[in-house]
């Protein structure tokens, strides 16, 4: 019996390990054909890297997959991934950006080089892959993009300032390209997973390590890349068989008082705002128009 993903071509960056591997295996089991991208930072005695091993796993269960070994920080990798997908199957239906690094350090101790390395992999790497795939999808007038972010990008997290900044950038990027792609049938959503992976294992609370299996998040990705999905611009926290929707909220509009330059008065105004109605917007221009209208009415 066919499934909604039979024959769909899905590009997955960082697909050789952790969450990316879990997504690749799950989507392949559902009939998707997978381009597994993962740099060969470590290879075995046969010269095979993480992407090669995931491709072998997929083929062993009767699926179709090809490996691509480029580093996502290299702009050429995005072109190579797209070319590989088109040369192999003639189309790209979905893209999942999962490649990421962390680089833990207190903000005041982070070197510019270390901060840049995280931003290059997590922001530029993800955006380059997504943009190259999006260009193809827009021509097809169909496509699904899932940017893998983190709750660190939503709330911040001590000791991983670069990582949190990069993941926050992906949330705003995803919401932006969701609006841009809607008219061309290209839908983008942002996933904020909790999972035990090589990146999180050392800091994972032992009480939840087993429940935070990466495969528990995979069904959400399967739904988001389905051609039947109409979801667009959603930010979804997922883990351990559950999910939460996350939104950006502006609270009540409060006029500045003459004493607003006083810290105590400013704190009072902020508290009044928090007691007001919540405002959510599809994009920043909607927020500006509403704010300006309320203040000038």
Which secondary-structure class do the elements indicate? alpha/beta
State the low-pLDDT regions, or none: none
Largest sheet: 8 strands, mixed
- Major β-sheet strand ordering: 3-2-1-4-5-6-7-8
- Overall geometric form: globular
What is the N-to-C order of secondary-structure elements (H for helix, E for strand)? Answer: EHEHEHEHEHHEHEEHH
What Rg do the Cα atoms give?
21 Å
Q: What's the count of strands? A: 8
Number of helices: 9
Mean pLDDT: 93
Helix content: 40-55%
**Terminal-residue CA separation:** 59 Å
Strand percentage lies at: 5-15%
Task: Report on this structure.
With 297 residues, the protein is of the alpha/beta class. It has nine helices and eight strands. Strands 3-2-1-4-5-6-7-8 form an eight-stranded mixed β-sheet, with helices on both faces. α3 packs parallel to α4. It is globular and about 70 Å long.
Which features does this protein show?
alpha/beta; 8 strands; globular
């Amino acid at each position: 019996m066919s499934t909604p993903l039979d024959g769909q071509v899905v590009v997955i960056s960082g697909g050789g390990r952790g969450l990316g591997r879990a997504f690749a295996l799950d989507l392949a089991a559902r009939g998707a054909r997978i381009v597994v991208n993962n740099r060969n930072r470590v290879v075995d005695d046969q010269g095979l890297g993480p992407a090669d091993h995931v491709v072998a796993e997929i083929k062993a269960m009767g699926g179709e997959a090809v490996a691509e070994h480029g580093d996502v920080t290299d702009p050429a990798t995005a072109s190579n991934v797209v070319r590989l997908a088109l040369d192999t199957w003639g189309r790209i239906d979905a893209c999942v950006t999962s490649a990421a690094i962390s680089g833990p350090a207190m903000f005041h101790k982070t070197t510019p080089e270390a901060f840049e390395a995280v931003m290059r992999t997590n922001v530029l790497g993800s955006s380059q892959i997504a943009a190259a795939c999006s260009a193809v999808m827009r021509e097809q007038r169909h496509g699904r993009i899932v940017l893998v972010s983190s709750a660190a990008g939503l709330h911040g997290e001590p000791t991983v300032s670069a990582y949190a900044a990069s993941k926050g950038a992906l949330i705003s990027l995803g919401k932006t390209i969701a609006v841009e792609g809607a008219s061309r049938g290209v839908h983008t959503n942002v996933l904020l997973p909790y999972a035990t992976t090589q990146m999180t294992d050392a800091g994972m609370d032992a009480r939840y390590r087993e429940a935070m299996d990466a495969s528990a998040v995979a069904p959400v990705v399967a739904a988001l890349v389905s051609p039947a999905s109409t979801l667009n611009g959603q930010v979804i926290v997922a883990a351990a068989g559950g999910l939460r929707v996350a939104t950006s909220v502006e609270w009540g509009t409060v006029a500045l008082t003459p004493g607003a330059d006083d810290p105590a008065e400013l704190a009072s105004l902020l508290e009044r705002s928090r007691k007001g109605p919540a405002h959510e917007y599809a994009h920043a221009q909607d927020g500006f128009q509403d704010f300006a209208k309320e203040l000038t009415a």
